[in-house]
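1st attempt posting a full record on here, be nice pls
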Amino acid sequence: MQRIFTKRKLLLITTLFINVVQYAQCDISVSTNDLTIQLEHTASFNLIIRNVTKYVPFSIKFDIQHKDLIRVEPELYNVTKDEDVNIVVHAIGAGHSEVVANVTNSSIILKNAFVRITVQKLPELDTFSLVIGWIYFVAWSVSFYPQIYSNFKRKSVVGLNFDFLALNIIGFTLYAIFNLGLYFIPEIKAEYSSRYPRGLNPVQVNDIVFAVHAAAATIITIVQCYLYESSDQRVSHVARIIIGVFGLFLFISIILAASDVIHWIDFLYYCSYVKLTITLIKYVPQAYMNYKRKSTVGWSIGNIFLDFTGGILSMLQMIIISYNYDDWVSIFGDPTKFGLGLFSVVFDIFFIVQHYVLYRHTNYEEQ
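the predicted structure (as tokens):
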């Protein structure tokens, strides 16, 4: 009796082992997980079916995330053998969608049988957008150096407002945190996709490089303030109060995120909102200082022209991307980037008027 029980147990274990091996051998995949198509055109991928003879016949059905953007042929396929099946994708609307394969046989587990589809109106706009992105990256990045060079040449930072610098370093640090988090952290990227299922991640590599470089260049300028003549300039009490309010707000936000009251992506958005607020107000102290002195001496106009160029191109890039993918939500998904360009341009125009019109002829002399 004991021997019969042992044989039955061995037979059961062997059967389970065979089933596990069969499951492991079953392989249904796709030739690519990413596919880019031009609007009103078609493209294709291969559905690769291997080692499924134990399970046939069964059907594979493609679930489409956004049927107003794409359709696939065939949408339902009956599997009878191992083969490669060509799946044709028709692009009927610009945007981003996913095609996921599902099987009628519950014994088959699919893991990588999905394709992310990107439909663009014109491929040339993608290239143009990329070129614009790097041009405005260069313009904005270089814009810090005329001021640094002017300080070095004059051996003085008189005329450069310290409130502007204090707000600038905080703003660019927060902007770098926002970009790094939304681009690199998987959980935050997943949450963004959940909130904006048809949206593309608005943060690109040049955004990250710019934010980190801008923070570093601002630090160099701050160091110059300790090395060169600064007269009696210092960070004002008003600016310190504003910075304190920002710090308290972010500290509370971190506690809420760590306590799972809000998501970490919400904390990143709060960082971006603080950065946007800083962009709104950071130029005011410098503009008022120029008005009070009736001079722009010490404030580099080269910085303004490069900043103006970067702001215009930054907004143009976002508009081109939104048009090409019919993805206007990406502008609202990254309000800091668009706001950074818009308000920078407005203040740059004002500084140009101060320099070339209002205070073109000034009697101000540095003491």
